[in-house]
Amino acid sequence: MTPTANPQKLKVGAKGPAVLALQQRLTDLGYWNGKVDGKFGGTTQQAVFALQKAAGIGRDGTVGPKTQKALDAGVRPKAKSKAGSGYLVEINLKKQLLMFVKDGEVVATLNTSTGSNQHYEYEGQTYLADTPTGHFKVGRQIDGMRHGPLGDLYRPKYFNGGIAVHGSPSIPPYPASHGCARLSNAAINWIWATNKIPLKTKVWVYNA
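^ thats the sequence. predicted structure below, dont judge the formating
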């Protein structure tokens, strides 16, 4: 009797109907993964990271049995804000997720990478790479590349001094920034195109 082969994991580079179904399911659950085109690229991987974080499972960006189970179960993150809070962005530092929330309901979820909580040196001084918690508002933005002292920020939306939601080519599934909330360049382009974070948008940052 021939043993049954284990189903292949879906990962970056995969194509076809299974990927199309994955992308549609992620979209239905509110995990932004760009165009539903049957091609598993970096944007779909970011959405899988977000799902895995919400489900509390390993963050490898591939779809194996545990991730498929989370998809089938319809796992979605929960908002901290309640009905009547209006529209805001929530950044959950513990889960490393950025969520768009309307009246307590999560409408879209993105993978983010926030402050690493490691110390770094800049001009002879030592600083902690943290993302402070609290309630803030987007006060300024730059529609372009900001060449900051600690690195480039693509299309940043600042909500706490020099701390912004911005695009970056590197969004690992763990905290790695100097304090900003990094998103993929594709995600920040979508945010600008759809006006998801206009000026004065409330931003809640918490560790829960």
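Residues 9 and 64 are 5 Å apart (CA to CA).
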